[in-house]
Specification:
Blueprint: E1 15-24, H1 28-37, E2 44-48, H2 54-58, H3 61-78, H4 93-103, H5 110-118, E3 122-125, E4 127-132, E5 135-139, E6 145-156, E7 160-162, H6 178-182, E8 190-194, H7 198-209, E9 213-217, H8 229-241, E10 245-247, E11 251-258, E12 261-268, E13 271-277, E14 279-282, E15 286-288, E16 322-324, H9 335-353, H10 373-376, E17 379-382, E18 387-392, H11 395-400, E19 405-411, H12 416-421, E20 428-434, E21 439-447, H13 454-462, H14 467-470, H15 483-490
Parallel strand pairs: 1-2, 1-6, 2-3, 6-16, 8-9, 8-14, 9-10
Antiparallel strand pairs: 4-5, 5-6, 7-15, 11-12, 12-13, 17-18, 18-21, 19-20, 20-21
Length: 493
């Protein structure tokens, strides 16, 4: 147990406290690492400078999906005669924002703090900085410094921060990041978004639903560049149908603020254009939050991702005490994959330092002590309309990895369950098959509610289920999942 009985962030004087394990960052990822690390009796503390629950709970996953859901429900109803006739209006922005607020608990983390207390995890509020091996200083908002020491391990779960490109005038324009977009109090009349990744397309969808005139500016040739090309094409078409002005292969060369709004000077194909919007959202990427956590004192470089092995142990630090999980590693920037990595790290720490290694040191691939899925089976859902759900490798990614592949696709709208779900149901399913082993290494679904198809594909990829065995997983009729039968038929079964 700790050497101090006062673990409160309200202490008015400097304190020195020792725990077996210290987790820096009390977001969803850090909470999972802390919970798992304490399962063999180790004492655990988490350090948090902002709200317990982190980005996902207050500014990312939960509020963004709460903003997106009403528009999706409305569109689903409009696609079913009998229900469509009852739709006589559009979304109520005030009620959409109020429902969003309920998911963030009004940006109050009391319930999350109560969960930590119930789990026996100490909370130290403030900004942590490494001062040496297994030692940290935590500075609270009032300037109070707490000196923390970990007997065994420190786990860094500080997440990531937005990147603002070096465009002249952009920083001075005080643009929104994803936080400002998802916590908006008043819906702007117009919004320009820089970036065609997940945040860009999701926020373009959400604000278009709320009645905002949205302009999306993307440097690349397509949206969602890390997905299969057909996914980005489908989302671009849908955004245009929603009234979004989509500019692909377009650079923002400068930004100025005028009385009538923010002016973006853009360049595309040798021509220039000025776009004007009330607000500007920059969604051009994120970087690991390692700038000011003291990495230099342990021989690492501030600002760099923390490179880890599959046990989530940070490479280049002697002694085997520093672990990292989530966005800060640069491996996979999703909450669910970060929580998966956190469970791995927590289990490793609990086993390694909690009195029984349980074979952890010699753990093979696919044991619970190795984050193997990060390399081959990462699932992701983009809650655009249509939704994009994918797992594993794209066709090009599989080829780049050296696989010999065949690709099989099927029109989702031709599946009986899709016809029942909605009139005019459109979408596409695709699997990437390693022909040498006869297993699926990647799958992508594009269409309404296709997120619910993804876990079956994830199991097939993780389990490396041979196609001739997968043939015996009979999909229920009439459901959209019947597409699995059609995909396997396309593969020759």
């Amino acid at each position: 147990m700790s050497t101090s009985t006062d673990h409160s962030s309200d202490s008015s004087s400097a304190a020195e406290t020792t725990y077996d394990v210290i987790v820096v960052g009390a977001g969803a990822v850090g909470e999972n690492a802390a919970d798992r690390a304490g399962r063999t009796g180790l004492s655990v503390a988490v350090v948090e400078a902002e709200l317990v629950g982190g980005e996902c709970s207050y500014w990312a996953c939960m509020p963004s999906k709460a903003l997106l859901r009403p528009g999706a429900v409305l569109e689903a109803a409009r696609a079913v005669p009998g229900a469509a006739e009852m739709i006589t209006g559009t979304l109520d922005p005030a009620k959409v924002l109020a429902r969003r607020d309920s998911f963030t608990s009004g940006w109050d983390d009391s319930s999350q703090v109560d969960w930590l207390d119930g789990a026996g995890i100490a909370l130290v509020r403030g900004r942590a900085r490494l001062t040496g091996p297994k030692t940290l200083d935590v500075t609270a908002d009032d300037g109070t410094v707490t000196h923390l020491t970990a007997r065994h391990a420190v786990v860094v779960a500080t997440g990531s921060v937005p990147v603002v490109p070096p465009v002249p005038g952009l920083a001075e324009a005080n643009p929104w990041g994803s936080r400002e977009a998802t916590s908006v109090k008043e819906v702007p009349a117009s919004l320009a978004i820089m970036g065609g990744g997940v945040v860009g397309v999701e926020m373009a969808t959400a604000f278009a639903d709320l009645g905002t005139k949205v302009t999306l500016v993307v440097r690349g040739e397509r949206l969602l560049a890390s997905n299969e090309p057909f996914a980005g094409e489908a989302v671009a078409d849908s955004l245009r149908d929603l009234g979004v002005d989509v500019h692909l292969s377009t650079d923002v060369t400068s930004v100025e603020v005028h009385d009538d709004g923010t002016h973006l000077v853009t360049s595309s194909g040798g021509s220039t254009q000025t776009l004007v919007a009330e607000r500007l959202l920059v969604a051009t990427g994120r970087k690991p939050a390692t700038d000011d956590i003291g990495l230099d004192v342990v021989g690492l470089t501030a600002g760099d991702p923390l490179t880890v092995d599959d046990a989530m142990l940070v490479e280049g630090v002697e002694g085997g005490w520093l672990f990292a999980v989530g966005d800060v590693t640069g491996r996979v920037a999703t909450t669910h994959q970060g929580k998966y990595d956190a469970r791995v790290a927590g289990d490793v720490v609990a086993a390694r330092f909690g009195g029984s290694s349980e074979g952890e040191l010699d753990a093979p691939d696919w044991s619970r002590f190795r984050a193997t899925a990060d390399h081959a089976a990462v699932p992701q859902v983009v809650f655009s309309r249509p939704e994009v759900a994918s797992v594993g490798l794209t066709e090009q990614g599989a080829k780049d990895a050296g696989y010999q592949v065949d690709v099989f696709s099927y029109d989702l709208g031709s599946v009986a369950g899709a016809a029942v779900a909605a009139d005019g149901f459109t979408g596409k399913a695709q699997i990437v098959v390693d022909t040498d082993r006869g297993v699926i290494v990647g799958a992508t679904f594009v269409g309404p509610e296709v997120a619910e198809l993804l876990h079956a594909a994830t199991i097939a990829v993780v389990g490396e289920v041979p196609l001739d065995r997968l043939w015996h997983a009979v999909p229920s009729y009439p459901t959209v999942s019947e597409v699995w039968l059609r995909l396997l038929e396309a593969a020759g079964l």
